[in-house]
Design brief:
The complex is a heterotrimer of chains A (about 300), B (about 575) and C (about 300). Chain A is built from twelve helices and no strands. With about 300 residues, chain A is mainly α. In chain A, helix 9 packs antiparallel against helix 12 (about 270-300) and helix 11 (about 260-270) runs antiparallel to helix 12 (about 270-300). Chain B is an alpha+beta fold and about 575 residues long. Chain B folds into two domains: about 5-230 and about 535-560, 3-Layer(aba) Sandwich (D-Maltodextrin-Binding Protein, domain 2), CATH 3.40.190.10; about 310-525, Dipeptide-binding Protein, domain 3. In chain B, about 30% of the residues lie in helices and about 20% in strands. Chain B has helices at about 10-25, 65-75, 125-135, 155-160, 165-170, 195, 270-280, 290-300, 330-335, 340-345, 370-375, 380-390, 410-425, 435-445, 485-495, 500-515; strands at about 45, 50-55, 80-85, 90, 100, 105-110, 175-180, 180-185, 230-235, 240-245, 260-265, 285, 305-320, 355, 400-405, 430-435, 450-455, 520-530, 535, 560. Chain C is mainly α. Chain C has eleven helices and no strands. In chain C, helix 1 (about 1-35) runs parallel beside helix 9 (about 215-250), helix 6 crosses helix 7 and helix 9 runs parallel beside helix 10 (about 260-270). Chain C starts with a helix and ends in a 5-residue tail after the last helix. The chains are: A mainly alpha (about 300), B alpha+beta (about 575), C mainly alpha (about 300).
């Protein structure tokens, strides 16, 4: 197991290098540079700007400089304010992680509750209510959900704020979490329901029931626990997606996470930020996958890694 | 037809019934205070306001080129002079207008007595000299250096191959005479130079913090000092800045801030900002003009909603190197196929002021309808021109495309034009939507055929609308307008010292540009639209057209709250 | 000996494929009995017919989605003339939604078509090509998975947009390519896993033991048995691709106007939400409907193909 984990971690190095390289060259292939603007700059200013940011050097030299920097932990700077990309990521990740973690908890709790609830009431009215929520939640792009939430609960009813995220202030927390969490909650609910139904049909549950165990004990101790394995596999990717920030929700609520700078940087051709966020994202996804695999082995004793 | 003013949101509620319960649980009937209208009361001391802004790219005034940067910089720093609401330079940090020698090349300027930076250090002549030297320093890559091209030695230093050079810097024509006096030497006389001494690229640089002109401008508010009415107290990148009054503000115009703080929230999406304005989270916001009709019906004009004509013109630019568009008949046909009134109503929700004149009337151009007979909407004449060009009823008209950015308003304009050309000329044009940087780079490389674009005035003179833009080979003449009559008039007008004659020459040029569709078929001048809360005072009185991109241009020191 | 061996193999294979036919027809019967899935399938077929006829037959379409406009009727609600009302330029929402439906279906199906081809190729090759090949291909898959989806789609689209190349020059195909590029990894992993586990199944081992060629085994036994899970994955993948296109449209990277996809329609509906809900409701409902129906059909297919779940 330890050997497996070490190999997986070592494998991340060439993986990140490849991601960095592909993104670097792809990004420079995109037409238009950081200093193209509606009112063009005089050539002398453009020249000095390119010198200032090393953009006058040949592309391969720039690439070499960048990789050298990354190897030393320097992700480069943003053309906006000359801010260190690592600072941008640190500040943004702090916010995105708060929002992401709370949303993750929301999605898992609501999703699993609904899923178990639906499965235990299979094919009766309550099941349909649960399924209805799960499918409606998953069938609305989240920019629509977010907009409707804002129009109703902020503008019309005045219950919550339009802007922002502030940890501990419910007026600034409820709507972003709802908009972001609806889709994953619905997804988790579906997976849980399907998995619960499968487990409830298994022999050992029948045995447990036959032994005369109380229904609650059967459900909680045996069924739910075993039904969690498939949920765990989707939890990893959901977690990675949530904590790396959502461009859409961050834009609609003007939240300062890592999702917004990420997409904005592409439009601004802010090369340093594009590279930094890509590396960051790839790292988080790789780690999340690894953690899921390890957890998977811990929960399901049939799985062994060599 | 009466438009519903409120959202019919019953259906929305139905759709959201599933998670309404969660929301109910989370809230305990917090009451909305609501923003009731009404006339402003008397100013009160203190208070804080939150306004919408856009994030700046740089805090360094000697580097910046963007309106949002400059708006903020004008709130925290001031130059020797400042432009009043009529665009006339008035002394600010300087005690009086400059002493200029007979030949107009040497300016001697004396500072006010007892000026101080916000940290208590003296603000001296050397600080202003340092500011100008920073702009001319190639290592700083200041984007507005060219405004100082006429300043002796500045251009030579800026364009030095090897970057900063101490000897070249010593040759730049600005020096201190004593602690409160500085002297500026120009290469040639330039009557507008006092205006330039009011602009951001000549703002002072604190020598006690940045002894060398290559020292990087700090980005942390705590490491900076200020000489404007406000100082930065906090900056959260991508989110907001907070300003507090500068205790050492010299108040040259007699106005000092009464607010305790101003918070500028960076919000790019005006729809979001408008919602925040509606809930009272903001007291100032730009209007989301895609739904202007609704906003206008919601807020009373003159009380909360304000509209201001911007010195800016937009139209359909045409690449004259294109063999089809080189034909004047084709260009006239396209121009006459655009119904300006309808375009403004449909594609812009009535936000702008339809026009056919390139130079706006406020800048001694022509009235908006001056050329309507020649290039204005006239479908029959348009069809005739197209037939004259050899494409009767659009037959045989080659492939053509409109290049636009990805904003909703740009798309609406492109679709409107496409429909107009199809309906009135029976020709098909494609629409290419690209992001802003691609659009700009395609424009600079002249890789376009039809391109909705335009111009925003830099300074209030008709020459700003012509030089470099329409003269053959002009540096920003991307549509390749090349007309001997225009070139001839530009030659005459450029160095004409008889102002009345010069203006009338530019008016002639304006007429030639428009009637010969030399690169652009003009369709409107732009308006700016704002929402200002009724309990804010000192803001709406100072709205000015020039650079009115953001509230920061409007004398922030005068803003306050009323009862 | 040899002859009897071959005859035995053929017999065996016939029996095996009879068994497989039985599997498929069983699955089909189970699917038919699933009322939710069948209902969803019927709706999908109807939507498909509507999408095709609504872009070819004049009396279904009623108006040209791009060039029929009524400037005196902007952003109006539904009427007998305009079933879904009109948009901000006075065009008929009904015809635009029909166009959007067709294009979104093309995007969804097109993306999954490419995904299946890449997924089968990469996953299948990995499963069959031994340890080294497997390692290389799966590491490659890891790599593709590690890219941030949205960024990668945006970059690819920005790099390729406006180039005068065949195929790529078509904007719709470009969007399809860009989205498929980031979505094939799941199917590749699935195919590989499925094939590896099938290789251990009794009847495959038996077939091998009886001298069946590798090719025969792959095409006769393994591929057909891999298809089930792949079909399920595709069914779930289609609405996800349609969503991805909608998100691109929201960011400003949708299809160029006047072409309407459900994504671009929803995006402009969203812009005008405080003035009219009729630009948003119809395309949003159609997206939701597609999402729901594909999900139900996918659930139904999975249950039908994998009887263990019951």
């Amino acid at each position: 197991m330890t050997g497996y984990i070490i190999r997986r971690i070592l494998w991340m190095i060439p993986l990140l290098w490849a991601v960095t390289t592909v993104t670097f060259f792809l990004m420079h292939l995109v037409p238009g540079g950081p200093f193209d603007q509606e009112k063009q700059l005089p050539p002398a200013a453009l020249e000095n700007l390119e010198k200032r940011y090393n953009l006058d050097k040949p592309l391969f030299e720039q690439y070499g400089l960048y990789i050298w920097g990354v190897a030393q932990g320097d992700l480069g700077i943003s053309f906006r304010q000359d801010r260190e990309v690592t600072d941008i990521l640190r500040d943004g990740f702090w916010v995105s992680a708060q929002l992401g973690l709370i949303t993750f908890a929301f999605a898992m709790v609501v999703g699993m509750f609904l899923g178990v609830f639906s499965a235990l009431n299979q094919n009766n009215f309550l099941d349909y209510v649960g399924v209805f929520f799960a499918t409606v939640g998953a069938s609305m792009p989240n920019f629509i959900a977010a907009t409707l939430l804002v129009l109703i609960f902020s503008v019309q009813l005045g219950w919550f704020d339009v802007l922002g995220w502030e940890f501990g202030n419910y007026r600034k927390m409820v709507l972003p979490v709802l908009s972001l969490g609806l889709l994953p909650a619905a997804y988790v609910a579906r997976i849980t329901r399907a998995s619960m139904l499968e487990v409830l049909g298994q022999d050992y549950i029948r045995t447990a029931r036959a032994k005369g165990l109380r229904e609650r004990v059967v459900v909680l101790r045996h069924a739910v626990k075993n039904a969690m394995i498939p949920v765990l596999t989707v939890a990893g990717p959901i977690f990675a997606i949530l904590v790396t920030g959502s461009f859409i929700v961050e834009r609609i609520f003007q939240i300062n996470g890592v999702g917004r700078p990420f997409v904005d940087a592409v439009f601004r051709r802010d090369y340093g930020v594009i590279m930094g966020t890509t590396i960051f994202y790839a790292t988080v996804v790789a780690i999340a996958n690894l953690v899921v695999d390890i957890l998977y082995a811990a929960v399901d004793p049939r799985i062994r890694y060599q | 037809m009466e438009r519903p003013r409120r959202i019919r949101w019953l259906w929305i509620l139905a759709a959201l019934a599933a998670f309404a319960a969660v929301a109910f649980a989370a809230c305990n009937g917090d009451d909305d205070d609501g923003g009731d209208g009404g006339v402003s009361g008397d100013r009160i001391e203190g208070g804080s306001i939150v306004v919408q802004g856009n994030e700046f790219d740089s805090l360094d005034p000697h580097f910046s080129a963007f309106a949002q940067d400059i708006s903020l910089q004008r709130m925290i720093w001031r130059g020797l002079y400042t432009m009043d609401i009529d665009n006339v330079p008035q002394p600010s940090m300087a005690a009086a207008l400059p002493d200029i020698t007979e030949d107009g090349t040497v300016y001697t300027i004396t500072l006010r007595e007892g000026l101080q930076w916000s940290d208590g250090d003296d603000l001296l002549a050397e600080d202003f000299v340092a500011g100008i030297l920073r702009t001319c320093n190639p290592d700083n890559a200041g984007q507005y250096f060219y405004v100082l091209e006429n300043l002796g030695g500045c251009f030579d230093h800026y364009t030095n191959e090897d970057g900063f050079d101490g000897d070249l810097e010593n040759l730049v024509g600005v020096k201190t005479i004593d602690d409160t006096t500085l002297e500026i030497t120009l290469a040639t006389a330039q009557p507008t130079f006092t205006i330039i001494l009011s602009l951001w690229m000549t703002f002072p640089s604190p020598v006690h913090l940045l002894p060398n002109s290559s020292d990087p401008w700090p980005t942390d508010p705590d490491e900076l000092v200020y000489n404007g009415p406000y100082m930065l107290t906090s900056y959260t990148p991508a989110a907001e800045v907070t300003l507090a009054p500068n205790p050492n503000w010299a108040a040259p115009n007699g106005i000092s801030p009464t607010l305790d703080s101003i918070t500028i929230k960076f919000i790019d999406d005006n729809a979001v900002a408008n919602n925040a304005y509606r809930t009272g989270e903001l007291v100032f916001s730009q209007v989301d003009t895609t739904v202007l009709t609704t906003v206008v019906s919601e807020f009373v004009e003159g009380e909360e909603y304000f509209k201001f004509l911007q010195p800016s013109t937009r139209g359909l630019e045409m690449q004259l190197d294109d063999p089809t568009l080189a034909d004047l008949d084709v260009r006239l046909a396209l121009s006459q196929a655009i119904d300006r009134e309808e375009h403004n109503r449909v594609a812009a929700d009535g936000a702008n002021a339809p026009s056919t004149s390139w130079i706006p009337a406020v800048t001694s151009g022509a009235a908006p309808d001056a050329f309507d007979d020649i290039v204005g909407f006239d479908p029959e004449s348009a069809a005739q021109h197209l037939a004259d060009a050899g494409y009767p009823n659009g037959e045989g008209f080659p492939d053509m495309s409109i290049l636009v950015g990805d904003s909703p308003s740009a798309r609406a304009t492109a679709e409107f034009l496409q429909q107009s050309f199809k309906t009135h000329l029976n020709i098909d044009v494609d629409i290419e939507v690209v992001d802003a940087k691609t659009r700009s780079s395609r424009f600079s490389n002249k890789q376009f055929q039809l391109f909705p674009g335009g111009w925003i005035q830099d300074y209030p003179d008709p020459e700003n609308w012509v030089l470099g833009l329409f003269d053959t080979g002009g540096s920003i003449n991307m549509y390749n307008c090349s007309d001997p009559d225009i070139d001839d008039l530009v030659e005459k007008a450029r160095f004409n010292t008889n102002d009345a004659e010069r203006i009338s020459q530019y008016q002639e040029i304006n007429e030639l540009i428009v009637t010969r569709v030399c690169g652009i078929a003009v369709y409107w001048h732009e308006n700016n639209h704002y929402l200002i809360s009724p309990n804010v005072v000192g803001m709406r009185e100072n709205i000015a057209g020039q650079d009115a991109y953001q509230a920061g241009d409007w004398m922030a020191e005068a803003w306050g709250l009323s009862e | 000996m040899a002859e009897s061996g071959v005859a035995g193999l053929e017999e065996f294979e016939e029996a095996a494929s009879r068994r497989e036919r039985g599997l498929w027809s069983d699955a089909f019967r189970r699917l038919i009995r699933n009322r939710l899935a069948m209902g969803a399938l019927v709706i999908l077929v109807l939507l498909g017919i509507l999408a095709v006829t609504g872009n070819t037959i004049g009396w279904v379409q009623r108006y040209d989605p791009a060039f029929d406009y009524d400037r005196s009727a902007l952003k109006e609600g539904p009427s007998l003339d305009h079933f879904f009302g009109t948009d901000n330029l006075g065009r008929d929402n009904w015809s635009r939604v029909l166009q959007g439906l067709l294009i979104s279906l093309q995007v969804g199906l097109g993306v999954q078509g490419i995904v299946v081809v890449i997924g089968l190729l990469v996953g299948g090759t990995a499963a069959l090509s031994g340890r080294l090949g497997d390692n290389i291909l799966m590491r490659f898959t890891d790599l593709a998975y590690a890219f941030p989806d949205l960024l990668f789609i945006i970059l690819i689209r920005a790099v390729l947009f406006g180039r005068d190349w065949p195929i790529i020059g078509n904007e719709r195909l470009l969007v399809i390519f860009a989205i498929s590029f980031v979505s094939w990894t799941t199917v590749a992993r699935l195919v590989r896993g499925q094939m590896l586990s099938l290789a251990e199944r009794d009847y495959v081992i038996a077939a091998r033991a009886m001298g069946a060629t590798q090719r025969r085994i792959v095409f006769q036994h393994m591929l057909p048995n891999t298809l089930g899970p792949v079909i399920v994955a595709i069914t779930f993948g289609i609405p996800i691709a349609i969503f991805a296109e909608a998100v691109l449209a929201f960011i400003g990277f949708g299809l160029s106007p006047p072409t309407a996809s459900l994504g671009t329609l929803v995006e402009s509906g969203y812009r005008f939400i405080i003035e009219t809900e009729w630009m948003l409701i119809p395309p949003a409902v159609v997206i939701a409907l597609l999402m729901l129906c594909f999900t139900f059909v996918g659930d139904g297919l999975r249950d039908a193909l994998d009887p263990r779940a019951h």
